[in-house]
Design a protein that fits this description.
The chain is mainly α and about 70 residues long. It has five helices and no strands.
């Protein structure tokens, strides 16, 4: 498990997180919107929650996206 400080270095803000998720996405680029539903929901969440999920999952973006989808 990585620390919160390491997570902050990897993804210092929500824009960097969104860029990283878009780069890791395997969907076809020709039908992607500006932001997918996961990224739109991520922007509404508290960023510290996303950082904690990123640290808890050792930087695995798939697991962090799954966490964002499940979060209410």
């Amino acid at each position: 498990m990585i620390t919160l400080e390491e997570a902050k270095q990897d993804i210092p803000n929500i824009d960097t997180f969104c860029d990283a998720v878009c780069r890791a996405c395997t969907s076809n680029d020709w039908y992607c919107t500006d932001y997918c539903d996961v990224l739109e929901k991520a922007r509404t969440l508290d960023y510290k929650r996303i950082l904690k999920a990123y640290a808890r999952n050792d930087g695995d973006l798939d697991k962090v996206c799954r966490y964002i989808r499940r979060t209410k």
